[in-house]
Amino acid sequence: MTVDTTIRVQPLEAPKGSEIDFGAAISGINLEKLTDADFDLIRDTLFKNQVVLFKGQGHISPKAQFELTNRFDPEATSYGHGKTLDAKRSILHPDLKTIPHQPQVQVIGNGKIEEYEGLKNIQLRHPHHRTFHKTIIPDADDLDFTRFYRWHIDAALYGLAPPVVTTLLAVKVPAGRRQTLRYDDGTGEELDVPLGTTAFVSGYAMYDRLSEEDKAYVRGTKVEYAPHPYVWMSGAKSRPTGLGMESDNLEIALKDLPEIEEDKIQILPMCWRNPVTGKLAVQIHPSAVRKLHLADGTVIDDLKEVREIVYNIQRPAIAPQHVYAHDWEEGDLVLFHNRGTLHSVVGAFAEDEVRLFRQCNVAGSSFPEGPKDE
Ligand SMILES: [Fe+2]
Prior knowledge:
Protein name: Clavaminate synthase-like protein
GO molecular function, one term: metal ion binding
CATH superfamily of the domain at 8-216 and 317-361: Clavaminate synthase-like
Family: Belongs to the TfdA dioxygenase family.
Largest sheet: 9 strands, mixed
Bound molecules: fe (ii) ion
Shape: globular
Number of strands: 21
Strand content: 25-35%
Mean pLDDT: 93
Radius of gyration: 20 Å
Keywords: Dioxygenase, Iron, Metal-binding, Oxidoreductase
CATH topology of the domain at 8-216 and 317-361: Double-stranded beta-helix
Number of helices: 6
Structural class: alpha+beta
InterPro entries: TauD-like_sf, TauD/TfdA-like, TfdA_dioxygenase
């Protein structure tokens, strides 16, 4: 008997009407025993397609998941948010549990888990928009309708550099029902999504669709993030699209944040350059932005104005036809380019719908590169 060991790379299937131009699936690679040639192919596919799916990976160890993730940035070793999650007021605090024997890998999901990888009797809670958005879908509609919870890059944005990639492994996925995702921003836009999908958009597509004038603006502008951004934003509420915050002056005052080390505050390019293709992606974490530094030296520090500018750049790119909403099956491992995409948790689970995922990323050993000088 011969075993088919052919490695295949295929584009991800997009639903009818979709205009997505990213995403690929790789089959025929043993992730527990990666060769250098395997990794070269994965790396090349990832940087050209941004999201890479491997089916049937439920068996892989947290160690193998970490090693695949870490191979993109071997000098990086600490979890993407480092110890910043310890801050009790951080909005990220309740959503993650760390695997004791592989601390760069986090368990996320929904429901009660008796035992998993050394974690005992854990209660997982899928993030729900009611805890983060200013307006909410009424409880009576909650199982049928949902929203993007929070569009983001996986990044501490204070001290630590953004991870290059993130891996997500679906260990347990509740039987599939579908939900209608509403934008609730007056556009009437909706997206039919599988329960608990992870939504992705491409930062390259976001850049490519801008006008020439806007392209020049985003190439020349830098984004300053708030210190301790996830504590800072914890008093504020999100827009209904999950794409950044409402401006009601509810952010935690700087003087009330944990001690601020000025050299940890991040001012990053608005566009990040792809290490393989050289293309530019608009990469902005919309809920953590605080100031904009323009090419001519002007600093915009009016928060409402900063957010409007960023929203106008980003909002067209999350329109339904540009979103890839992954339909999770148990064993799916999704590797995504965290410096070339934005992603969002989606969905509202019932209390008894058990979902178990493993997530891994490591803070970058260096910062993303911006556009080359013109
Ligand atoms: Fe994330």
